[in-house]
Specification:
- The chain contains seven helices and ten strands.
- The protein is of the alpha/beta class and 232 residues long.
- The chain has a single domain, classed as Vaccinia Virus protein VP39 (Rossmann fold, 3-Layer(aba) Sandwich), CATH 3.40.50.150.
- The protein has a seven-stranded mixed beta sheet, with helices on both faces. A three-stranded mixed beta sheet has the order 1-8-7.
- Strand 7 and strand 8 form a beta hairpin.
- Helix 5 packs across helix 7.
- The longest helix has 14 residues.
- The mean pLDDT is 94.
Length: 232
C-alpha cells in the first residue's frame, strides 16, 4: 500500500483549489463551521472583518451575509484566492471587499485594522502557534474578537490526515497538532483572553452512506474552536 504524499500548504492548495468550494464540504468542516458561526455575531453592520487564510472565501461570505461593511481576505495560495474572487463576485455585496496574497506569519494588514479576525482551519499548517496568534492579535483592534479553529489534536494522535484527491491521486497537506495547553500558554504570553472554547463533534447525518471513515470519529471532537479577545 503506497503512502499518501504530504505536501506543503502552497503545493497542496494549488492542487486542491479547483475542488475546494466556498462552503463547508465535508463532515469535519461542517462541524467546525457550525461552532464558528455560533460564535460569530449575528449582526455585523458597520464592522470590519479580516479572514486570515481565507481559502475560497467561505467565512468572508458569512461575514457579508451578516452585514459586515468591510471584509478582507488574505491567503498564501494565489489559486485559492482566484476561486474566492469568483465566489465573492457571485455574492454581489455592496460592502468593501478585498483579497490579498500573503502569509499568516506576516499579514499584509495594518495594526488594529479589524473588529473581528477569523482564522479557520489554518493555524495547524504553521509550526509556531504563538507567532501566528501574535499576527492575528496585531491586526485586531484593542477589545476586538478573534475566532480561530483548527483540526482537533486528537485526530493527529489517531493518525488522521488532512487529505484530498486530485486526478485520482490522494494527497495530504502538512499539519501540526497544537494542543489546548499550547493555545493557553500562547494566549497568556500575548495577553489574549480565551472567552470560549468549543469542541464540536461530527453529526452522523453529515456522513454519506458510502463513506469510508474511521468509526472512532463519531466518539471524539473533530475541531478545536476558540473565541479570543484582544485586551482593550
Amino acid at each position: 500500500m503506497s503512502q499518501t504524499p504530504i505536501l506543503t500548504p502552497a503545493k497542496a492548495y494549488a492542487l486542491w483549489a479547483p475542488h475546494y468550494p466556498a462552503q463547508a464540504h465535508n463532515p469535519v468542516m461542517r462541524a467546525e463551521e457550525r461552532a464558528m458561526l455560533a460564535l460569530m455575531p449575528a449582526g455585523m453592520h458597520g464592522q470590519t472583518v479580516l479572514d486570515a487564510g481565507c481559502g475560497s472565501g467561505r467565512y468572508m461570505l458569512h461575514a457579508l451575509s451578516r452585514g459586515a461593511a468591510r471584509v478582507k481576505g488574505v491567503d498564501l495560495s494565489v489559486q485559492m484566492l482566484q476561486y474566492a474572487a469568483m465566489a465573492l463576485r457571485e455574492h454581489r455585496s455592496q460592502a468593501e471587499v478585498s483579497l490579498v496574497q500573503g502569509s499568516l506569519e506576516a499579514l499584509p494588514t495594518p495594526d488594529a485594522w479589524a473588529d473581528l479576525t477569523v482564522c479557520g482551519l489554518v493555524i495547524g499548517h504553521l509550526d509556531d502557534l504563538q507567532q501566528a496568534l501574535a499576527e492575528l492579535s496585531r491586526v485586531t483592534r484593542p477589545g476586538g474578537t478573534l475566532l480561530c479553529s483548527d483540526v482537533h489534536p486528537i485526530g493527529h494522535a489517531l493518525g488522521w490526515l488532512r487529505d484530498f484527491k486530485c486526478d485520482g491521486q490522494r494527497y495530504a497537506v502538512r499539519h501540526k497538532a497544537h494542543r489546548y495547553s499550547h493555545w493557553h500558554a500562547a494566549c497568556a504570553n500575548l495577553g489574549l483572553e480565551i472567552e470560549r472554547v468549543l469542541e464540536p463533534m461530527l453529526d452522523p447525518d453529515d456522513i454519506p452512506a458510502e463513506a469510508h471513515f474511521d468509526p472512532r470519529a463519531l466518539d471524539v471532537p473533530v475541531a478545536l474552536v476558540f473565541q479570543l479577545r484582544r485586551a482593550p
